[in-house]
Amino acid sequence: MRHFDLVVIGAGSGNSIPGPALVSEQILVVDDGVHFGGTCLNVGCIPTKMFVHPAEIAHEVAEARHVLNATSGEIRYDWQGIRDRVFGRIDAISEGGEEYRASGEPNISLLREQVRLTSEHELESASGERITFDRLVIATGSRPRELAALPLGDRIHTNDTILRLDNQPERLAVIGGGAIACEFAAMFAGLGTQVVQIHRSELLRGVDDEVRACFTEAAKRRWGLHLGTEVTRAVTTADGVTLTLSNGDELTVDHVLVAAGRVVNTDRLGTQELGLDHRENGALVVDEQQRVLRGGEPVAGIWAVGDSANTAQLKHVANHEARVAVQSILHDLGRAEAPSGVLGPIPLVVFSSPQIATFGRTLAEAHDDGLDAVEARCDYGATAWGWALADSEHFVKIVAERGSGTLLGAHIIGPDAGILLQPLVQAASFGQSVHGLARGQYWPHPAATEIVENALLKLEEQL
Amino acid sequence: MRHFDLVVIGAGSGNSIPGPALVSEQILVVDDGVHFGGTCLNVGCIPTKMFVHPAEIAHEVAEARHVLNATSGEIRYDWQGIRDRVFGRIDAISEGGEEYRASGEPNISLLREQVRLTSEHELESASGERITFDRLVIATGSRPRELAALPLGDRIHTNDTILRLDNQPERLAVIGGGAIACEFAAMFAGLGTQVVQIHRSELLRGVDDEVRACFTEAAKRRWGLHLGTEVTRAVTTADGVTLTLSNGDELTVDHVLVAAGRVVNTDRLGTQELGLDHRENGALVVDEQQRVLRGGEPVAGIWAVGDSANTAQLKHVANHEARVAVQSILHDLGRAEAPSGVLGPIPLVVFSSPQIATFGRTLAEAHDDGLDAVEARCDYGATAWGWALADSEHFVKIVAERGSGTLLGAHIIGPDAGILLQPLVQAASFGQSVHGLARGQYWPHPAATEIVENALLKLEEQL
């Protein structure tokens, strides 16, 4: 029976756990993915954004025709060219990473199988090997939720498979209304696919209402939206997939993308059987050192990070948690201080079109929390950069506590939202108040950052 | 003879001086521009960026053909459509602003003439009116430098006139190598004009060497560059303008844009005759309250802001100085504290293509200043967003003091450089060290801000 000092299950953010600080430990990395390296690299953040960028250019050109006095022929994208370029790059990284973990370091071994915990210090692989360990990091991530009415197959996909299609779908149904569904809908629409998005409720629930309304209006102009309904039946024919909706509508598409939420992979791992504490969505409950809890108390020797351990389901959060876990392990080994301190607010960027970036509370949420909060909004169109964009719909909203000026949240929809948010994330993370934030620094004229500056100035007037 | 409590000469940033705080003062605003409102609004930052944006889209599409597996027909821009849209918007603002200053407020008068100071408390207008005043703000800005070999006319322009051409030039020579010349060259090239840029030395002197080299390489691919030479003779014919260069080359273009530096307008104002202190470029020397100096001492009742008072020649600096001047005037009136404190580093964005954003010292400048400085660079291509862009040439460089981690400068070339710079401007302005700056906040994955994050992490390792 093999024994390891440390086992890491999941090679997404988990793959960053082994490193120079743990070079004296015998470590087993476990990854049962089709491609080594987790969701972000292979089927998530990275490849999608590599498709989103060309799609966004196509969209900008389409807008340019109407708004910027430009005309052009149709932009024709070479789907296979994009796909092969993207996965030519990514698969090589995945394969290189796998090779390195398999044989690149004397203290690290790789197991490419699904595993199940049989105790706090033992696991069993799908092929029947039993492995013991002193310490464990659970980083098993999440997978797309499957829907009973839409069994996966040649025409019905998740993000795991849709980007590798041989041909760009002419007609695509996107099922879901969250960030992933909205990104894929905009991306395929930008590349010229005729998209319909079907979701049982509203788009992007949890995001600021004005932002959601702005996004939904933009989506309606660019692709078909069927909200408040769901697919009850899917019949695959030679011509495509015919979907029947709960509102009685029927439509036929070439392919379907199911992006209706994600299932935390702890269910396959046996963590329930070990009596560990779980959140409602299946993620493990952890303390500020990423140690998993049982009955509210940390379990010795077990950490969890990423989608296994939070409900944010964001790569930058998983990466941070992996760093915290490493330090906690080192502390457990007597080699470091315990990690301390909680990082500032978690930004979320929806790389759709329009792009959305947000952190913290909406005004309504702040009021619900009993805070004396105020909000200010600056439209892109109120600044010179917005004039350059000929923008008339996008905006920045910032929420702060009256008096103290503590930043409570920011909500941006529009071009470069994900970048424009960062000065506000930074201010909130380092405890900078809204008082003096705009006037305490230069904002180069006429860059898009003036939208943030002006929102801050308007907010400051209300404090 | 009319008398005013306050005269403001120049209605660019000077136009922000009159406001609620000075409503009890009788104020005269003087503007001798063809269009009311100064350079930025009428012939500078704002209209150029309104042309830059569509040009940038065209460039992105051209890049997309090569890099992003897309093909398209030629994008055809409607120059007159852009021009009429831009100036339809801007001229209306200028005219509305002029009307408001002329008759919108009982305490404000407008004089649309060139004026000359005859004493510290009197001016004379071109039409011969003499006006006295208690207090004066000089905000007369700057104008394009004219070149003897290139007399302005129907085919030889500056930024003051080129954007209003009836037809887009097919062939354009841009004379100069600074930010303005580089912006116009990229803009016209993006819109499909055949551009040659002619400059007596190198492009963008004063900017980080690696950034300049990267820019120059990109420029060479997109337009003709004649560096280290200058125009010695221009002959206008029916066919265009034939330029003879000092290196013996000869070339014919439809139009010429002279963008070879700017002359500070104090020369027309009589400030030399008043014995005020001037910088080498003609700008007035001011103290931290924007009070002009004579013999190193502040002159009672005279302030200067913007290009009249600094060598940055940037709108965000002028706007800041106008705010400082207002507070200083209020202090002089006994109604406010004196302004205090100096704002952090001044960012410069060159809205060319590629875009450049920079503040503070290069590593070489830091060493020249005797600082123990270190630098780190992160390429766009080293991040997931760079993969999405298929970027292989652009980068972020950050300079800090070893030990303290004090931010000394940052230098970015590439898409969205002007926005990416802001978290670093903010950190430098509020005295945040590089220590902990990257890891003390979330950077959403895989946004372009990760390039800045990674440069900070690399820099921190060297501190």
UniProtKB/TrEMBL annotation, chains A, B:
Its EC number is 1.8.1.15. PROSITE patterns: PYRIDINE_REDOX_1. InterPro entries: Class-I_Pyr_Nuc-Dis_Oxidored, FAD/NAD-bd_sf, FAD/NAD-binding_dom, FAD/NAD-linked_Rdtase_dimer_sf, Pyr_nuc-diS_OxRdtase, Pyr_nucl-diS_OxRdtase_dimer, Pyr_OxRdtase_I_AS. It is an enzyme of class 1 (oxidoreductase). Residues 346-455 form the Pyridine nucleotide-disulphide oxidoreductase dimerisation domain. GO terms for molecular function: mycothione reductase [NAD(P)H] activity. Keywords: Disulfide bond, FAD, Flavoprotein, NAD, Oxidoreductase, Redox-active center. Residues 4-322 form the FAD/NAD(P)-binding domain. Its cofactor is FAD. Belongs to the class-I pyridine nucleotide-disulfide oxidoreductase family. PANTHER family: DIHYDROLIPOYL DEHYDROGENASE, DISULFIDE OXIDOREDUCTASE. This is Mycothione reductase.
